[in-house]
Design a protein that fits this description.
mainly alpha, 15 helices
């Protein structure tokens, strides 16, 4: 590998990991043990990269495709890229992966004896995004979140050695809530990709058409629909919040940050009067800190 190739490889990895700062929740905050931070960033890098492939948000230039062995002619085909990424994930468990994000992940996988299932779930969710553009019912959306969000929480529990069936159940509720909140923040952006994550049955109930989501500001029916889905996310966060009290030390603070990030984002959506169409409502740091305190005290 030449010096130029090494630099490009580093830039690909760094560009993916730098996106952690833009998330609703802390990915690997400073107060965690160094080993946990490294492992969580390795997991985040995987999750972020597979989402970027699925969303068509890879860095320009085709470096990721080349690293995965995808020809320039197929570099824009997301399903081909996802297949190549899954093949490289298999190398994490069997030999030596090609992509730097997966090379970074391999020591974590081996040391903690992580299984392929949660990683495969995230890839499957992004394949589904290429094929499924609408969700008929809330249950259909929950099934999608089982692939797209819940594996991340399960990996956090695995990295920290705290997995139990009850904690996994609570974690799933939190992760599904965070996914729903993200969908609410990104209604306009998702529509630009011809995706709607608002259940069609709910849209019909609130008399919302696809065209109503393409306006610059939301009408009363869209706001009512967003408020309804936000309450669902709030209820899921409350269902999952006892997970925080089931652990101790710095992990408790990390999990409180996840719950607080969701609650603060819902507050921002409400503060915008549920008009998410001009752009994603984002919570301020003070609101996030307040929600961390509420969560740590076991209030809701």
């Amino acid at each position: 590998m030449t010096g130029t190739d090494t630099t490009r490889t580093f830039d690909v990895e760094r560009g993916t990991l730098d996106k952690a700062a833009g998330e609703n929740f802390p990915v690997a905050p400073f107060f965690l043990p160094r080993a946990w931070r490294a492992d969580l960033m390795a997991v985040y890098g995987f999750a972020r990269l597979v989402d970027d492939i699925g969303d068509g948000d890879l860095a320009p230039g085709g470096a990721d495709a080349r690293l995965l062995g995808v020809s320039p002619e197929e570099a824009e085909d997301r399903l081909v890229l996802l297949d190549a990424f899954e093949a490289d994930l298999n190398r994490v468990f069997e030999s030596a992966p090609r992509h730097p994000i997966l090379r970074r992940l391999q020591p974590t996988v081996r040391r903690l004896a992580l299984t392929p299932e949660p990683f495969l779930g995230l890839i499957a969710a992004n394949r589904q995004d290429q094929l499924v553009k609408r969700y008929e019912t809330y249950d259909d959306l929950l099934a999608y979140c089982e692939l797209s969000a819940n594996p991340v929480g399960r990996l956090v529990l695995a990295v920290t050695g705290t997995s139990t069936p009850e904690r996994i159940r609570r974690s799933d509720a939190i992760c599904t809530a965070l996914q729903i909140v993200e969908h609410l923040q990104d209604v306009a952006e998702d529509l630009g990709r011809d995706r709607i994550y608002l259940p069609a049955a709910d849209m019909k109930r609130f008399h919302v058409q696809d065209a109503d989501l393409a306006t610059k500001t939301a009408g009363a029916s869209v706001r009512a629909l967003v408020a309804y889905e936000a309450q669902r996310a709030r209820d899921l966060l409350n269902e999952g919040a006892p997970l925080v009290g089931s652990v101790h030390g710095r992990l408790r603070l990390l999990l409180a940050g996840f719950v607080a990030g969701g609650r603060a984002a819902i507050h921002a959506i409400a503060a915008a009067e549920y008009d998410v169409l001009p752009g994603p409502p984002k919570p301020g740091k003070l609101r996030l800190l307040r929600e961390v305190g509420v969560t740590l005290r076991g209030e809701g």
